[in-house]
Specification:
The chain is an alpha/beta fold. 22% of the residues lie in helices and 39% in strands.
Length: 179
């Protein structure tokens, strides 16, 4: 059941897109000179072989990353000659949220009594994390990483899914320094 749920998940950060503010967790190499980056290549999830991602969503992410970087003045190049490689992967986890509240009663003398009603609500959901890495092509070391975790959301239309992925990727890629 868990594997089936992950395989049909239309990934990423198909996370409550429109009304949510996203704050990615970002880290970078303090010794890398990001101002030297002129070219890139999106290698996607080849290094991770993420089986939970389908080709449609993979293409959406690739397009969003490419567009974000070209809008920042970078040029797409071949894998062998690009300055940086952009890799990404997705992690999905089943989660449970439990909320409980107690509506206590008051006894005859105003003391908190034993009479009352307790309500427990349990909600199952899937939390997804998109991780994007920038890798220096010469050293093959990660120089920048951004990750964003949210509850995954179902979208009614392809356009809604496209927009959600673009939004998440753009917010994450804005964190890439000096480019």
């Amino acid at each position: 059941m868990k594997l089936t749920k992950l395989m049909i998940l239309p990934i990423v950060l198909i996370m409550g897109a429109c009304s949510t503010t996203y704050t990615p967790d970002t880290d970078q190499s303090s010794s890398y000179d990001f101002s030297t980056v002129k070219t890139f290549n999106v290698i996607g999830d080849v290094r991770h072989n993420a089986s939970i991602m389908n080709d449609i969503d993979r293409e959406r992410i690739n397009i969003a990353i490419t567009k974000a970087l070209t809008e920042q003045g970078k040029q797409e190049d071949e894998v062998k000659s690009s300055d940086i490689l952009i890799s990404y992967f997705i992690v999905a986890k089943d989660k449970i949220k439990v909320n409980s509240n107690f509506n206590g009663g008051y006894g005859r003398f105003g003391f908190h009594g034993v009479a009352g009603v307790s309500h427990v609500n349990v909600r199952n959901y899937v939390e997804g994390t998109l991780v994007i890495d920038a890798i220096d092509n010469k050293s093959q070391k990660t120089i920048w990483r951004s990750s964003l975790t949210k509850s995954l959301k179902h979208f009614e239309t392809t356009q809604e899914r496209d927009e959600a992925i673009k939004k998440v990727v753009n917010i994450m890629m804005e964190q890439l320094p000096n480019i």
